[in-house]
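From the methods appendix. Each design record in this collection lists the tokenized structure first, followed by the designed amino acid sequence. Records were kept in a plain field format so they could be parsed without special tools. The example shown here is representative of the layout used throughout.

RECORD:
FOLD TOKENS (47 positions):
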């Protein structure tokens, strides 16, 4: 697998990320995890 997409900047590197808002039948798709079940996140990640 290749490297993540990054862009050099003055103080280091910026990781390029993407996200999505998915809506179906009036409901949003959100994800969570077992470590912090009280938090939900939109789907996405590094390019």
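DESIGN:
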């Amino acid at each position: 697998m290749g490297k993540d997409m990054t862009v050099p900047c003055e103080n280091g590197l910026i990781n390029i990320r993407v996200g999505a808002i998915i809506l179906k039948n009036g409901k949003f798709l959100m994800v969570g995890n077992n470590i912090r079940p009280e938090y939900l996140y939109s789907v996405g990640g590094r390019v």
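APPENDIX NOTE: Strands lie at 6-9, 12-15, 17-20, 23-24, 27-28, 43-46.
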